[in-house]
Amino acid sequence: DFEGLAMDIILKKKYQKFLFGNAEMGLGSDERYQAKGFVTRFHQLYRLSAYALGNNINRDDTFDEMGTAHYSDTDGDRKGIKAGFRYNVDQSRGLYALDGNAEMNYTDLMNSYKISQTTFLDAGDVYKRMSNQHNNYDFNAATNHSINFYGEKRNKLTIEPDFKYGRQHSNQQRLSGVFNTNVANLLGSSWEDSLKTIDPGFALTQFGINRQNISFKRDSETMTGGAHLNYVIGIPYTEDELTISLLGRHTRNEYEDYRHELTDFFRDEKKKNLFTNHYEDKVCKETYFDAKATYKYEFITGSNLYLRLGHIQSERKEDNMVYDLDKLDGWNTVTQS
Predict the structure, then answer these.
(1) Predicted confidence (pLDDT) per residue in 167-226, tens digit
(2) How many CB atoms lie within 10 A of CB 335?
């Protein structure tokens, strides 16, 4: 019966440190590619890992701490690059321990679709052509760390800083045209051009009910950083503990939007063409601070009483500029897309 027993295994020195990794690369048709690599340096007191991945086959790849690859499929036409490292270090006498990671990720994603729709009405069937194209370019970087100091008398100090940065560029265009007859043979493969140009062309002029052109662009940037400090003090000759915790965080978000919308009507003279130019620039800053102290008092073995005192302070500032540019002189003009 081995219940209650523990086995202590000590590796030979030649097995206490080693290096392992793996790498894959593949090429396919239509200029498709995939590449990924992982390497780890292992020692009895530390572990260092680095990885890099890239592909344009609509997969979001990642590695876990043991170097096993995982992936998830995504929609659209996606290509991306990801790289990072992880570390874990223990001091030989157990006085401190370090743990952390950092990762960079870039993706280029395009989603597009085209739709032909027929609506059956008593007054006559209506035919609609629609297209949507959405491009996203994302860059993100993040790093997290944990620093632990183990002192005497059950004291422990932990410091955990972190930082994240993100930047995104988004570009979207939606086009639609509504007709009173099926113009599929007249429009051909380049039917989207007639929905964007100033001259509506033959099909829209003769059979069009309306057309709509919406363009949307956004540039955004996000930064957030903070740190958490936690200090546990063991009270001598007791099982009591005093814990002091400090948490601070600052976030800054900024985005810039531009929206252009044009709607033309071809059959109803009572309806006026609609034109909108909209611009928005928004900056949001937020600061958060939390401080608290906790005392754990053991009045009976196995029974604890906690006393907490804390303070939270939060501040948020937001600047928002919005302009309807089509209402300004010189902007209410249709231009070639």
Answers:
(1) 999 999 999 999 988 887 776 666 777 787 777 778 888 888 898 999 999 999 999 999
(2) 8
The predicted-structure confidence for 114-131, as pLDDT tens digits, reads as follows 888 899 988 888 999 899
Reported as a single tens digit per residue, the pLDDT across 271-314 is 777 888 888 999 999 999 999 999 998 877 777 888 888 888 89
- Residue 191 · residue 201 · CB < 8 Å: no
Give the residues across from 223 on adjacent strands: 165, 252
**Percentage of residues in the chain with pLDDT exceeding 90?**
42
| Backbone phi and psi for residue 186, each to the nearest 5 degrees, phi listed first | -80, -35
What is the token pair recorded at 305?
């009483």
- The dihedral region occupied by 18, where left means phi > 0, alpha psi between -120 and 50, and beta the remainder, is beta
Q: Which residues, at least 6 apart from 303, have a Cβ–Cβ distance to it below 8 Å?
A: none
Both tokens assigned to 302: 């196995």
> What's the one-letter identity of residue 237?
Y
- SS3 per residue for the chain: CCCCCCCCCCCCHHHCEEEEEEEEEEECHHHCEEEEEEEEEEECCEEEEEEEEEECCCEEEEECCCCCEEEEECCCEEEEEEEEEEEEEECCCCCEEEEEEEEEEEEEEEEEEEEEEEECCCCCCEEEEEEEEEEEEEEEEEEEEEEEEECCCCCEEEEEEEEEEEEEEEEEEEEEEEECCCCHHHHCCCCCHHHHCCCCHHHHHHHEEEEEEEEEEEEEEEEEEEEEEEEEEECCCCCCEEEEEEEEEEEEEEEEEEEEEEEEECCCCCCCCEEEEEEEEEEEEEEEEEEEEEEEEEEECCEEEEEEEEEEEEEEEEEEEEEEHHHCCCCCCCCCC
pTM, rounded to two decimals: 0.82
257 Cβ neighbours under 8 A, 6+ residues apart: 216, 217, 218, 278, 279, 280, 281, 282
